[in-house]
Amino acid sequence: MSLNKLPQVDKILNLECFKTAIKPILANIVRDELEKQRELLKQGKDMLEFDKLTQLILQKYENFINKGLKRLINATGVVMHTNLARSVIDEQILSRAKDVITSYSNLEYNLNSGQRGNRYDYIGSLLSSLFGFEDALVVNNNASAVFLILNTFAKGGETIVSRGELVEIGGSFRVPDVMSASGSILKEVGTTNKTHLYDYENAINESTKMLLKVHRSNFDIVGFTRSVDISEISKLAKDRNLIEYYDLGSGYVGELNYNLGKDEPSIAKFSKVSLVSFSGDKLFGSVQAGIILGKRELIVKLRKNALLRMLRVDKVTLAILSESVKAYLNKEFELITTIKHINKELSSLENLANLINQNLKTPLEIVKTNTFVGGGSLPNKTYPSIALKVAGEAILNESIYRAEGIIGRIENEAFLLDLRSILDKDVKELIEKINKIESAK
Ligand SMILES: *Cc1c(COP(=O)(O)O)cnc(C)c1O
Predict the structure, then answer these.
(1) Does the C-beta of 292 come closer than 6 Å to ligand 1?
(2) Name one Pfam family in it (predicted).
(3) 33 and 99 share a domain?
(4) From atom 2 of ligand 1, which residue's Cα is the shortest distance away?
(5) Do 354 and 306 have their domain in common?
């Protein structure tokens, strides 16, 4: 047994292949692996050859690096993919926000008075003007919005919700759980498929604080169904002196192509509702945030809840969100990447397919397909798309492309690169990588 056969840690750290590695992370991996080799030697066994050992360490280091945030090419066709970071921020939006993020700013300083200012005033005005509500507030995400609203207005009392709307959204957001954490008591009404206005009426008692409607973001109940429109709920709440709140989940501004819009609520339609909330990074197409819109007196109470301090958004979020809202107000819709891609005409995707093929050594088959919007909106509603079909074994192709940072989709046992979710800036790299992968086959 000779332990002095073990290589020095530094010898491995200084190898050319680790030139740009994060050294303390790499050093930990190297020490772990050397320890295992030391054990082998102690047991009288052979240790790995040096090249094999460095290969193993390189593999472990790459596995670690792959867990960090990395740019990917989304060729799934799902524009707002929950696992692929939902909405993409346009570079123009980011560059407009950049100066404020990289400098000191008036985040909590009123330049007109020279006094302490409020971080929510400006974004609140922008948002209420975009959507036609009296006032607005922004929190960390829509889950926080639901929590803050219930905690502020329904803590210790009952909140009435339709059984058909007790949703669970991916990533463990469950309406009943958020409700109990907020301190409000859930009062379910109706049945899974049908809820009537009289179900809400009959459930109201002296402990009732709020009528909640939740958008069914990621599933659909079809067949023999009935749910109560928010306008009816609003009217009932007004008559009984209660607050009504609509958790929209997603929601968009303006129009969507392909008749998608009729199934997903356009936010401005609800400006008479006491409170609504939705995610900043779903169809709205901006950063992670929970956007709350509603009556001024209610927004004022939300701002006074001490819990807001725990849910507050950073300047990075506020700066980017403000630029997205301004882009909407100025009708620069092409800067909202999510909306731009959902609305792309099929002909422009066909042109893109042809352009990519013209640059490929071996063109791929162009196929018509259908995709989903994703991100917990428009459940079960497909709309048309165009994809490039990669010849060969689908599961194998999926993993080869994934290793190059291209995430595609398997459909009918074929691996597809769906062009609906390909960004303009992805095109060049996509061409290079397809050429590289396919010529290596
Ligand atoms: C997505 C969603 C949420 C959670 O929103 P986050 O911004 O992800 O926290 C809450 N309610 C509904 C109906 C949703 O669709």
Answers:
(1) no
(2) SelA
(3) no
(4) 249
(5) no
